[in-house]
Amino acid sequence: MTDNAVKFHIIYTDRDMLLSRQAFASWRDIQEAYPGYLTSLGPWSAEEVIEYLQQEYPELEPSSEQQLALCMSAVETVLSFSR
């Protein structure tokens, strides 16, 4: 299901939690791209994202695996999480 070459960022803003497969040089680039930026995690492998989401959001629906699959198959490089 996962491509180990793809890296992801989980981005928290004051309004959203986002999953991005866009490459960023640094967290400052993420901060510039997202108004209301609070923090970000990554770049992480798909497995690391799934593990983090399962630990921090065990009731996440759809599951972390399903949301990651959506992000990988979407045209957009950034998707808002359902949490």
Describe this structure in words.
This protein has 83 residues and is of the alpha+beta class. It has a 4-stranded antiparallel beta sheet, sandwiched between helices. The protein is globular, with a radius of gyration of 12 Å. The two termini are 22 Å apart. The model has no long low-confidence stretch (mean pLDDT 88).
Q: How many extended strands? A: 4
Beta fraction: 25-35%
Structural shape: globular
Oligomerization status of the protein chains: single chain
Strand order of the largest sheet: 3-1-2-4
Mean pLDDT, rounded to whole units? 88
Largest sheet, described in full? 4 strands, antiparallel
Q: What is the gist of this entry?
A:
The chain is an alpha+beta fold and 83 residues long. It contains 3 helices and 4 strands.
Fold topology:
Blueprint: E1 8-13, E2 17-20, H1 27-33, E3 37-44, H2 46-56, H3 64-73, E4 78-80
Antiparallel strand pairs: 1-2, 1-3, 2-4
List keywords for this structure.
alpha+beta; 4 strands; 25% strand; single chain
